[in-house]
Specification:
18 strands; alpha/beta; ten-stranded mixed beta sheet; FAD/NAD(P)-binding domain
Length: 418
């Protein structure tokens, strides 16, 4: 088949590679001048099945409201539009116990499969990107422990490998943790890993090119036409190029691309902040990745750098930085790993959108329009879900039953049509 993939982030590149490996002719259209320029550019690097979970969970709204006006809040609402408020209302409706458990299970199934597929690609193709093993979730208080119980039960039911650690046990695994920082408990996921998403994406792009994938950069695709949904146009005056299938992996732009087809995809740009700095002293830096559960801040070791991400923000835009959100990242880093990084010079500060659906899971599969397929809405878990999403979608397009059940990952769970 002759297939178009819209988007060259980690989702689009993995999708293009899997389709090309199955023998399809693939063309990738990307509005930027290179691959991995948006959400894949500087994410935290944590590829975790255990921590890939819906934002919409019991107690989420109360947690957000409690922290909304605090200095180190995990979520800020900045100049929200009516669409943002509608999205928050939809998220609130998905926060009940039953919906959370269902969505958590569906994401976990995909994340486990994705981790396996990522390791397979990394090993068989010799993709040498920065990576380290293990993830630890740090719980500061009894309240943090209580909030984690629902997710932990889902993971137990799924047979996921993790261990609850005491303060002393956690410090054996991450000896650089500040001995003065109070730690109520930690959850360790030994099979999860930290990896450089952008490096992986660019390496896999090269592999895709050797399979014949054709990349079109600086090519902004116009919204798909209801009369010709499989035709790709980048300017109003061109007739365009028609494909047998089109896969939409365009992040936030996916909503606009699909709207003429009668699909209203409820994506929100949940912006996140990232700081990256050189390691000051290796013995004072984390060995792999940790997450501060209270502030939803991740700290990871990527080669000779420490990367800190968090400070989620609904509304606003990627170019306007909130100084308070950035200061929170520094404070959390200093709380757990003081002196780990050279934060006084050459610090990279980045803010990017993580296109997220209100209930949590991505949309992976058929769109309901002949020849148009969806692989979008992965939110903050894009790196953890990318390889699995790409493979199951490629299998579906190829007419093969995917290796995992896709229940709860299709658009049938949402009322998207006008």
């Amino acid at each position: 088949m002759n297939i178009a993939v819209i988007g060259a982030g980690v989702i689009g590149i993995t999708t293009a590679y899997e389709l090309a490996a199955m023998g399809h002719r693939v063309s990738v259209f990307e509005r930027h001048g290179a691959a991995a320029e948006e959400g894949s550019f500087a994410n935290t690097g944590i590829a975790s099945a255990g921590y890939a979970a819906p934002w919409a969970h019991p107690g989420m709204i109360k947690h957000v409201l409690t922290h909304l006006w605090q200095r180190d809040t995990p979520l800020r609402i900045s100049s929200p539009s009516m669409g943002d408020w509608k999205w928050l209302w939809q998220m609130r409706k998905a926060c009940d116990n039953a919906t959370f458990a269902r969505n958590r299970t569906n994401i976990l199934r995909l994340a486990e499969y994705s981790g396996h597929r990522m390791r397979t690609l990394t090993d068989t193709l010799n993709l040498e990107h920065e990576r380290s093993q293990g993830l630890m979730v740090l719980l500061r208080s009894a309240r943090d422990i209580e909030r984690m119980q629902g997710s932990l039960q889902v993971m137990r039911d799924a047979g996921l490998s993790f261990k609850t650690l005491s303060d002393q046990e956690a410090r054996v695994i991450e000896p650089a943790l500040d001995p003065q920082a109070l730690l109520a408990q930690a959850i360790h996921f030994p099979e999860d890993e930290v990896g450089n998403c952008r490096q992986f994406t660019l390496l896999l792009k090269s592999e895709a090119e050797t399979l014949g994938v054709n990349f079109h950069f600086n090519a902004s695709v116009l919204p798909l036409s209801k009369a010709q949904p499989n035709t790709i146009r980048t300017t109003e005056d061109q007739t365009g190029e028609t494909f047998q299938a089109v896969v939409v992996c365009a992040g936030l732009a996916s909503s606009q691309l699909l709207r003429p087809l009668g699909l209203r995809i409820p994506l929100a740009a949940v912006h996140g902040y990232v700081i990256s700095a050189a390691v000051r002293e290796p013995l004072d830096a984390p060995r792999s990745g940790v997450i501060d559960e209270q502030y939803k801040v991740a700290i990871s070791r990527l080669g000779h750098r420490v990367r800190v991400s968090g400070g989620s923000e609904i509304g606003g835009n990627a170019k306007r930085h909130n100084p308070a959100s950035i200061k929170t990242l520094y404070r959390v880093l200093d709380h757990w790993f003081p002196g780990a990084a050279r934060t006084q010079d050459n610090v990279q500060v980045w803010k990017g959108a993580r296109p997220m659906l209100p209930d949590g899971p991505p949309l992976v599969g058929a769109s309901g329009v002949s020849g148009v397929w969806l692989n979008l809405g992965h939110g903050a878990s894009g790196w953890a879900l990318a390889c699995g999403s790409a493979r199951v979608l490629a299998d579906s397009i190829n007419g093969k039953s995917p290796d995992i059940d896709l229940q709860g990952l299709g658009l049938e769970r949402l009322n998207l049509r006008r």
